[in-house]
């Protein structure tokens, strides 16, 4: 007989799926306009760590050309894009896996490497998708307490259990913006057992300052249990197209390639990514704009006496009050003024908001709205 739900209806799916809290995305502009009776044109969205420059012009042209071929399936193996990535990073094409966003890569890793009941290690306050990827396969989460809102890699190494098969590390981390220096990551990799795969999620890698940059692909050559994931959604400005990639030795890459959907990355995304990858000027402008915008925001937080976590990404997490209602309250006050940021109560950070660094005028609009919200 079928299991019965609370109201007597049939219950579908395993308990570990029913226990999942759905991912909370940044509110779309159109939804805020409807809910608060605002004009879409006046709304500032700093909620999803998108590139405020939008997509590069080079990618826009590539998209226009690729549209003509949309009657056909995409190249399942992403030959052209993998060729470009391969040349850029000096790794063979069979070390690369393309994903429908790097989110896809994170889920593929969990599905390919972990059995139900085995464990996955990740840090408190790290990217929400790690918890989702763990839950959706019925794995056990080992969430390691953060240190100063970031990864405590010594504690994470110590937390690895005999049944641990995967570790997620975000560097820089979202939503807190913290950064783990290269030496600490390398020390961690040396400690991790050979049968435990480390996914080093570098979604914000392209925003790192020169003195923070490190060669994670050299580690991929040295550690067969390391996978580096990157995305075209953030600095490359292609969030809407959904494309990211993983770099790992062939034994690991092969597993991801077996279980991914054959056409998981569409042809328009592949064409745009090739163009964006070659657009060094756009990447440089994005990083420069981000650096200036970060200073604009943190100067304002200093002036307003607000605590924030120093960020290495394209966003800053700021504490907007001393009580657990503060994040939701200030968020609502901002929404009413047409400014969308990201409350992080779902990360158990109810006093904080995460603000994406926007154009100078968007940052200024946010700061002005924040001052009114706090007044
Ligand atoms: C944004 C983000 C991603 C993935 O974004 P995609 O759009 O799926 O590529 C992955 N990891 C972190 C930490 C992120 O913030």
From TrEMBL:
Provide the Aminotransferase class I/classII large domain boundaries: 43-364
UniProt EC number = 2.6.1.9
Task: List modified residues, type N6-(pyridoxal phosphate)lysine.
Answer: 234
* EC class (word): transferase
Question: Which GO biological-process labels does this protein carry?
Answer: L-histidine biosynthetic process
Q: Name one Pfam family in it.
A: Aminotran_1_2
Give, as in the UniProt entry, the pathway in which the protein acts.
Amino-acid biosynthesis; L-histidine biosynthesis; L-histidine from 5-phospho-alpha-D-ribose 1-diphosphate: step 7/9
Specify the domain of life of the species encoding this protein.
Bacteria
Q: Where are the transmembrane segments?
A: none
- Which cofactors, by name? pyridoxal 5'-phosphate
Q: Which reaction does it catalyse?
A: L-histidinol phosphate + 2-oxoglutarate = 3-(imidazol-4-yl)-2-oxopropyl phosphate + L-glutamate
| Record keywords | Amino-acid biosynthesis, Aminotransferase, Histidine biosynthesis, Pyridoxal phosphate, Transferase
Q: Does the keyword Transferase apply?
A: yes
GO molecular function terms noted in the UniProt entry:
histidinol-phosphate transaminase activity; pyridoxal phosphate binding
Q: Which HAMAP family match?
A: HisC_aminotrans_2 (MF_01023)
The family assignment reads: Belongs to the class-II pyridoxal-phosphate-dependent aminotransferase family. Histidinol-phosphate aminotransferase subfamily.
Q: How does it assemble?
A: Homodimer.
* Entries under PANTHER family matching the protein: HISTIDINOL-PHOSPHATE AMINOTRANSFERASE, HISTIDINOL-PHOSPHATE AMINOTRANSFERASE 2
Q: What is this protein called?
A: Histidinol-phosphate aminotransferase
What is the originating organism of this protein?
A: Cupriavidus necator (strain ATCC 17699 / DSM 428 / KCTC 22496 / NCIMB 10442 / H16 / Stanier 337)
List the top taxonomic levels of the source. Answer: Bacteria, Pseudomonadati, Pseudomonadota, Betaproteobacteria, Burkholderiales
């Amino acid at each position: 007989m079928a299991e019965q739900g609370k109201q007597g209806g049939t219950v579908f799916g395993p308990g570990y799926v029913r226990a999942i809290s759905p991912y909370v995305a940044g509110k779309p502009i159109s939804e805020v306009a409807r809910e608060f009776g605002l004009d879409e044109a006046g709304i500032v969205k700093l909620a999803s760590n998108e590139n405020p420059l939008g997509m590069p012009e080079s990618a826009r042209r590539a998209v226009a050309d690729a549209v003509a071929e949309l009657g056909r399936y995409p190249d399942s193996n992403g030959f052209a894009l993998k060729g470009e990535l391969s040349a850029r990073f000096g790794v063979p094409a069979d070390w690369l896996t393309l994903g429908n966003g790097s989110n896809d890569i994170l889920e593929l890793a969990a599905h390919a490497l972990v059995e139900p009941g085995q464990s996955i290690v990740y840090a408190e306050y790290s990217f929400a998708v790690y918890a989702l990827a763990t839950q959706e396969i019925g794995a056990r989460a080992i969430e390691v307490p953060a240190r100063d809102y970031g990864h405590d890699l010594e504690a994470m190494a110590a937390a690895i259990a005999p049944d641990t098969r995967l570790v997620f590390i975000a560097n820089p981390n979202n939503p807190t913006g913290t950064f783990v220096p290269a030496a600490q990551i390398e020390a961690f990799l040396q400690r991790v057992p050979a049968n435990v795969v480390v996914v080093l999620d570098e979604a914000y890698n392209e925003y790192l300052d020169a003195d923070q940059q490190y060669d994670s692909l050299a580690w991929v050559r040295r550690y067969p249990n390391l996978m580096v994931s990157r995305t075209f959604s953030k600095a490359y400005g292609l969030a809407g197209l959904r494309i990211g990639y993983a770099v790992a030795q062939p034994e690991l890459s092969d597993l991801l390639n077996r279980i991914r959907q054959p056409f998981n990355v569409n042809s328009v995304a592949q064409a745009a990514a090739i163009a964006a990858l070659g657009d060094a000027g756009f990447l440089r402008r994005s990083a420069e704009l981000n650096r200036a915008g970060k200073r604009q925001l943190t100067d304002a937080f200093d002036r307003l006496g607000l605590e924030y976590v120093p960020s290495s990404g394209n966003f800053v997490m700021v504490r907007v009050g001393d009580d657990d209602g503060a994040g939701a309250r200030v968020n609502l006050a901002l929404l009413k003024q047409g400014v969308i940021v990201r409350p992080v109560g779902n990360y158990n950070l109810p006093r904080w908001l995460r603000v994406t660094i926007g154009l100078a005028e968007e940052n200024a609009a946010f700061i002005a709205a924040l001052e009114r919200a706090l007044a």
